[in-house]
Amino acid sequence: MKFNKVVISGVSDQWTDEDVKDGADADYVRRIRRRVDGELRPTATVILGYADDSPESVKLGYRLFRTRTYFADPLQCHRCLRFGHVQAKCRAATARCPRCAGNHEFDVCTAREDSTRIKCANCGGQHSAKFRGCSGYQTVKAVLRTSTTTGKSYAEAAKSSKPWRQRQTPSRYRRRNMHLLLLRTSQQ
Ligand SMILES: [Zn+2]
Ligand SMILES: [Zn+2]
Ligand SMILES: [Zn+2]
């Protein structure tokens, strides 16, 4: 079942998911959690899903909450570090290292103490492949956003995006890599 998803913010965690579901008359409810000091904590942001059109606002108790379109974050595989699937569904031949982009697990990486060997497996930049500011991550995120707002499939949205024009003159390596990254990602 694919829902039209929106988010509302500022929802006290005294509201349980069931309460929100009833109050907002939603078909699906999920509160966003964030890891703080190793512990998953509820945030004040809740995702609402509707089988039909989503409302522009919902009322919980006496308070009115404006809804915004929900944009999914890119899924990233912990094993091969590519986007669009999770580790359990990974079909890559080998793992890739989030530290140095080599074909090995992070545990056996010899570059762990050597910051000059940091290399992102997705864009080639000098940061961890799990860095959210990575142009690869940002590019996939932008495509997901386009896909959500235009109703296009991920593949269609990726085709119409020009990632190499959005950032500061990337190298040819990076440009080619980014293109492959989008082609390989088949998210949602
Ligand atoms: Zn994978
Ligand atoms: Zn490594
Ligand atoms: Zn990167």
What this model shows, in words?
The chain is an alpha+beta fold and 188 residues long. Helix content is 26%, strand content 19%. It is built from five helices and six strands. It has helices at residues 17-24, 135-150, 154-160, 163-166, 172-184; strands spanning 4-8, 28-36, 39-50, 57-60, 63-66, 68-69. The strands form two sheets. The chain has a four-stranded antiparallel beta sheet. A two-stranded antiparallel ribbon has the order 4-5. The radius of gyration is 19 Å and the shape is globular. The model has no long low-confidence stretch (mean pLDDT 88). The structure holds zinc ion (3 copies). Residues 97, 99-100, 102, 104, 109, 111 line the site of one zinc ion.
What's the gist of this structure?
With 188 residues, the protein is α+β, with helices and mostly antiparallel strands.
